[in-house]
């Protein structure tokens, strides 16, 4: 499977001139741990996460500068200035991480997992022609694993595997398009829908209304070329991918 098969497409983003407090409120309200920072062309220029916001002057958690024996030694403390900017800066451009690891839509999930592990990160933006098109996280990978274990690959023949993959992509796109029109069913994240070998896997929170779940199930069943639909119930609200 590739990033395109499991990524979240409705990604919450912020602009570099957003205030730190605005973004802190955004993370808290949406129950997410970070957001990509994009420019006017929707190109990813940074990422801001909870880790970038925990050392702040407003709450007395800024890093304390160590005393140096001389001004010369103090000048060698190259991290002091960046720490000050991070703890005192008012705009997201001052606190965001600028070295962004990203993947393409066709990146295999094995490569995505390797990037997450080797870089010690929880999620990566998915870009196409330099612009943000989605996001893939550890949660996406776990759900992909659940879907893969539930239904084995139909064939080892390369051509048939490619045909199945294209069909799965088309089913997922059609279903997500249909669900986007059904605002009354509540929040359905793209990460809550995975298609493997024409079988649709749906993730619901245990507090979602039964009739809403049934409506989504029926929409999946009515999507052309779907063979079967399986529901997975998880505790609490749906987990955003970021």
Please describe what this structure looks like.
The structure is a single chain. The chain has two domains: 136 residues, CBS-domain, CATH 3.10.580.10; 92 residues, no CATH class. The chain is globular. The mean pLDDT is 83. The chain has ten helices and seven strands. With 242 residues, it is an alpha+beta fold. The strands form three sheets. It has a three-stranded mixed sheet with strand order 5-6-7, sandwiched between helices. It has a two-stranded antiparallel ribbon with strand order 1-2. A hairpin with a 2-residue loop joins strand 3 and strand 4. Helices cover 40% and strands 17% of the residues.
């Amino acid at each position: 499977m590739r990033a395109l098969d499991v990524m979240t497409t409705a990604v919450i983003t912020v602009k570099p001139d957003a205030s730190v407090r605005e973004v802190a409120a955004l993370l808290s309200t949406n129950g997410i741990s970070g957001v990509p920072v994009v420019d006017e062309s929707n190109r990813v220029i940074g990422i801001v996460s909870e880790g970038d916001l925990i050392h702040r002057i407003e709450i007395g958690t800024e890093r304390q500068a160590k005393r140096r024996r001389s001004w010369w030694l103090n000048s060698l403390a190259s991290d002091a200035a960046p720490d000050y900017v991070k703890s005192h800066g008012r705009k997201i451009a001052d606190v965001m991480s600028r070295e962004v690891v990203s993947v393409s839509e066709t990146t295999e999930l094995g490569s995505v997992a390797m990037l997450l592990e080797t870089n010690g990160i929880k999620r990566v933006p998915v870009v196409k022609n330099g612009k943000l098109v989605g996001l893939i996280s550890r949660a996406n990978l776990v759900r992909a694993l659940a879907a893969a274990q539930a239904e084995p690959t139909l064939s080892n023949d390369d051509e048939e595997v490619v045909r199945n993959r294209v069909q799965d992509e088309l089913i997922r796109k059609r279903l997500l398009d249909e669900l986007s029109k059904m605002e009354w069913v509540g929040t359905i994240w793209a990460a809550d829908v995975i298609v493997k070998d024409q079988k649709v896997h749906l993730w619901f929170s245990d507090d979602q209304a039964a009739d809403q779940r049934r409506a989504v199930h029926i929409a999946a069943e009515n999507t052309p070329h779907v063979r079967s639909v399986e529901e997975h119930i998880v505790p609490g609200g749906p987990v955003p991918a970021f």
